[in-house]
UniProtKB/TrEMBL annotation:
Stored Gene3D superfamilies: Cupredoxins - blue copper proteins
UniProt-listed InterPro entries: Cu-oxidase-like_N, Cu-oxidase_2nd, Cu-oxidase_C, Cu-oxidase_fam, Cu_oxidase_CS, Cu_oxidase_Cu_BS, Cupredoxin, CuRO_1_LCC
Organism classification: Eukaryota, Viridiplantae, Streptophyta, Embryophyta, Tracheophyta
Annotated cofactor note: Binds 4 Cu cations per monomer.
Cofactors, names only: Cu cation
Name of the protein this chain belongs to: Laccase
Organism annotation: Cicer arietinum (Chickpea)
């Protein structure tokens, strides 16, 4: 049975009809189709006393919530009313056989140009929790982002106490200038980009910035209740610590997968990661107001936004007693470079992995790959001066020393139309291992120049893959949040220094590893992930620090069709944008 549920500009009749049927025959409702319209339009927003004409969806900043249940089909009609090219990525959605709806520009689609429309069409299968949507072209995601809330199926409950309320918490970065000007200038000069002027919590920087105290996110709660915070790091370039004064959080979900719950006072979250935490409020009305604060976790050598975003956890008065001027309590956060804290924290994530939510970790590996990830340099064009890390160079970044060049047409369309034969758009010989091995976390090689190319890895359908992601110390060891499109992967191991293929696999967790779509490669270390290549199509993989993606820390995979009809990449939709 398929019902239709319109979220934007909906007909009230359809909406009521949908609710009635759901109420009367809940067992009949297998899935419904949810219709959204995303108008990409300009919006004037003022923060820190600077007004900017930002890009928005439906005039909202942050953007509107996309709400669906596991099993639902989602149709989002995106209409481009701005002068920039746009695409939207449904970050973390598996998109099984529907890569045309994944969104990265020039990988799975050409951009939606001014006055054009494209309808993204996908089902949500086997996932529940929090994800987010964001623009996936240049740095437009700076303001084009919003939550994806995936509720359990109608007849299913959470594997934890039912929350009284659910609240999205989105971290972002605010620039007083146009972020497109920032990245364009950085790419031209070869230097590091100008940093953001503020971090935001649900679009609001909070009281620790000039001209900002009115722009403070307030989480109003009642005593003795359970709140589910759906936390999303949509910041462009920084991992973040986050804590609420005098409150312990219980982490229950990561990247739309349930985990074994654990308690913590502080979380750390990379760009591209999402996590659900339970906040249990104090049993009685406390005589205090509690600050919630974030701070960047920084490992690289470049400059960064070192400002402090804050929101307020405010207990609502039960009785009208005087509560003005309650003392503010502030949480304590780790040092900005506390890699030990981050390492300890990330090791606490384990899949729930019970009989109701079993996991399928590849035990046997068909294909082993080893990718270095890190920074590098490229030459300055003749007769120009560059502001890169060394004289006459530009900053670059790479995977196995290849800095990925985006073509000017869609890779997946080229693949679909021309098959795997070389059509000149891409090559299929991305190296399984570094071509020039070195001591990755020791003294960097003298030559730090990267290769520029468009090379992909080709995988047969259902290959079981093990991928080691190894950070390098070129231009400074740095944590890189790697995001794989179209897949969740199991994080089976991690460590510092160079990965040792003789010693390290014996410590892999093949029992209850966390399953996610974005993992922080430890600064000066490595992470081991495994997955089954069960989703045919072309899938982008990249660092979710946008400056590193822009510098080329990105590559892509082709996963070939399987034999069954539901194991093949679907034909492209008729409204797929053209280049
Ligand atoms: C934004 O502000 C400018 C200058 O005040 C104005 O011209 C423009 O119409 C506004 N745009 C929108 C979308 O409100
Ligand atoms: C988009 O549509 C508007 C209104 O119809 C028109 O004025 C404008 O020229 C169009 N722009 C492009 C690039 O097609
Ligand atoms: C969405 O995709 C499904 C499955 O391919 C297809 O049956 C349906 O017609 C599509 N809907 C729209 C509006 O394109
Ligand atoms: C908050 O925590 C501090 C430090 O642990 C403690 O001294 C204080 O009593 C707590 N206040 C409340 C209202 O919980
Ligand atoms: C808090 O809630 C629990 C369960 O909802 C209830 O049993 C308990 O009495 C409440 N405590 C207070 C102080 O209201
Ligand atoms: C972290 O920063 C502190 C303070 O700036 C500094 O003293 C310390 O050496 C740094 N630690 C690491 C591991 O870089
Ligand atoms: C990390 O965990 C180790 C071992 O449990 C502990 O000794 C250390 O204090 C922890 N470090 C931080 C920063 O939490
Ligand atoms: C660079 O400058 C030299 C000397 O002025 C000139 O001969 C050469 O053509 C220039 N090269 C480019 C690419 O502009
Ligand atoms: C870079 O170039 C400048 C000016 O030519 C020179 O003074 C400086 O020593 C050079 N630095 C390095 C590291 O080569
Ligand atoms: C790699 O470099 C590290 C750090 O300098 C050093 O401790 C280690 O011995 C080196 N490993 C090899 C195999 O040379
Ligand atoms: C790098 O350069 C140094 C100094 O010029 C030299 O001693 C060293 O052998 C070089 N290392 C490599 C790996 O080429
Ligand atoms: C938009 O994308 C098209 C197709 O790739 C390209 O030809 C055009 O130059 C782009 N326009 C802008 C404003 O970037
Ligand atoms: Cu990175």
């Amino acid at each position: 049975m398929n019902l239709t549920y319109f979220h934007s500009f909906q007909s009230l009749k359809v909406l009521l009809f949908g609710f009635c049927v759901i109420t009367l025959f809940p067992e009949l409702v297998v899935s419904i189709t949810r219709h959204y319209t995303f108008n990409i339009e300009y919006l004037n927003v003022t923060r820190l006393c600077h007004t900017r004409n930002i890009l928005s969806v439906n005039g909202k900043f942050p953007g509107p919530r996309l709400v669906a249940r596991e099993g639902d089909r989602v149709l989002v009609k995106v209409v481009n009313h701005i002068s920039n090219n746009v695409t939207i990525h449904w970050h973390g959605i598996r998109q099984k056989t529907t890569g045309w709806s994944d969104g990265p520009a020039y990988v799975t689609q050409c951009p939606i140009q001014t006055n054009q429309t494209y309808t993204y069409n996908f089902t949500i299968t086997g996932q529940r929790g929090t994800l987010f949507w964001h623009a996936h072209i240049s740095w437009l995601r700076a303001t084009l982002y919003g939550p994806i809330i995936i509720l359990p199926k109608k007849n299913e409950s959470y594997p934890f106490e039912k929350p009284y309320r659910e609240i999205p918490i989105l971290f972002g970065e605010w620039f007083n200038v146009d972020p497109e000007a920032v990245i364009n200038q950085a790419l031209q000069t070869g230097g590091g980009p100008n940093v953001s002027d503020a971090y935001t919590i649900n679009g609001l920087p909070g009281p620790f910035y000039n001209c900002s105290s009115k722009d403070t996110f307030k989480l109003k709660v009642k005593p003795n209740k359970t709140y589910l915070l759906r936390i999303i790091n949509a910041a462009l370039n920084e991992e973040l610590f986050f804590s609420i004064a005098n409150h312990t959080l219980t982490v229950v979900e990561a990247d739309a997968r349930y985990i074994k719950p654990f308690n913590t006072d502080i979380i750390v979250i990379t760009p591209g990661q999402t996590t659900n935490v339970i906040l249990k409020t104090k049993p009685y009305f406390p005589n205090s107001t509690f600050l919630m604060i974030a701070r960047p976790y920084v490992t690289g050598l470049g400059t960064f936004d070192n400002s402090t975003p804050a929101g307020i956890l405010q207990y609502k008065q039960q009785h009208k007693s005087p509560t003005k001027n309650l003392p503010f309590l502030k949480p304590t956060l780790p040092f900005i470079n506390d890699t030990n804290f981050v390492s300890n924290f990330t090791r606490k994530f384990k899949s729930l992995a019970n009989s109701k939510f079993p996991i399928n970790v590849p035990k046997k590996v068909d294909k082993k790959l080893f990718f270095t990830v890190g920074l590098g340099t490229s030459p300055c064009p003749e007769n120009t001066t560059c502001q890169g890390p060394t004289n006459n160079t530009k900053f670059a970044a790479s995977v196995n020393n290849y800095s990925f060049v985006l073509p000017s047409v869609s890779i997946m369309e080229s693949y679909y139309n021309f098959g795997n034969s070389n059509n000149g758009v891409y090559k299929t010989d991305f190296p399984d291992n570094p071509l020039n091995p070195f001591n990755y976390t020791g003294t960097p090689p003298n030559n730090t120049m990267v290769n520029n190319d468009t090379k992909l890895v080709v995988l047969k359908f259902n290959t079981s893959v093990e991928l080691i992601l190894q950070d390098t110390s070129i231009l400074g060891a740095e944590s890189h949040p790697l995001h794989l499109h179209g897949y969740d992967f199991f994080v089976v191991g991690q460590g510092f220094g160079n990965y040792d293929s003789n010693k390290d696999p014996s410590n892999f967790n093949l029992f209850d590893p966390v399953e996610r779509n974005t993992v922080g490669v430890p600064a000066g270390g490595w992470v081991a992930i495994r997955f089954f290549a069960d989703n045919p199509g072309v899938w982008f993989m990249h660092c979710h620090l946008d400056i590193h993606t822009s510098w080329g820390l990105r590559m892509a995979w082709i996963v070939l069709d399987g034999p069954e009809s539901n194991q093949k990449l679907q034909p492209p939709p008729s409204d797929l944008p053209k280049c």
